[in-house]
Amino acid sequence: MDPEFFINSEETLRRLYSATHDLAIHKIQETLGVHAQEFIRRSPFLCLGTQDLNGRADVSPRGDPPGFVSILDDRTLAIPDRPGNNRLDSLSNILANPAVGLLFMIPGFDDTLRVNGVARIATNPALLETMTVNSRVPTLAIVVQVREVFLHCAKALRRSHIWDSTHHQDRRQMPSLIKMILDETTGAPEEEEMRKIDAGLEEDYKKTMY
Question: Which pairs count as long-range contacts for 17-26, CB under 8 Å and 24+ apart, including other chains?
Fold first, then answer.
């Protein structure tokens, strides 16, 4: 792209938009109020944003039954770390740079909840025991000290029609997860062998979800 069209200052940026609405400024809270806490108790899904010291950004999805994020007090949350691919991107980033951003979603709600804060990694047995699912205790928890909390309006989710089943796409229109990864790395095997690999992944999901 022509560098002429890149924006390089906040002043230039803000000239493109009207002034921020007072409600958008004043809605930011430093603690978890009654509605934020209820939103978190209902939420089965969040996205966790982190960065390392070099500015490498990462966003990780986290999901569990509603209420899986523990509200320790009005300034502290704890997120269980469930089994994954063991890349440990988010956890490594938190060790390097503890600033995090959370986006909570509730199926059927077009509003979202945003929480920004500072995270630490904890292995407190008493805390982890409260996060047990299917008799599996998480290895650790991400404990977030809340700095900013605010509800986010419905425009993005309404534009996307994310909860509207008439806009849902057929998953079969794209290859399986493993095939897409193999296509772009080592190369995928023939169709019959690929079916066995896909079936193995589904079986692995059943065994390693927790």
Answer: none
CA distances from 7 to 2, 12, 20, 106 (A): 11, 7, 19, 35
Query: Are the C-beta atoms of 205 and 199 separated by less than 8 Å?
Result: no
Residues 6+ apart with CB under 8 A from 111: 151, 152, 153, 154, 157
Backbone angles phi, psi at 164, to 5 degrees: -85, 110
Read off the pLDDT of residues 100-111 as tens digits, 9 standing for 90 and up: 999 999 999 999
What's the average model confidence in pLDDT over 24-28? 87
Q: Are 44 and 63 in contact (CB under 8 A)?
A: yes
Residue 41 class from Cβ within 10 Å (0-12 exposed, 13-18 middle, 19+ buried)? middle
Nearest one of 124, 29, 141, 106 to 75, comparing CA atoms: 29
**C-beta separation of 115 from 149 below 8 A:** yes
Q: Are strands 76-80 and 45-51 parallel, antiparallel or unpaired?
A: unpaired
Q: Is 135 left (phi over 0), alpha (psi -120 to 50) or beta?
A: left
**Which residues, other chains included, contact 55 with Cβ-Cβ below 8 Å and sequence gap of 6+?**
none
Angle at 106 between CA 101 and CA 108, to 5 degrees: 140
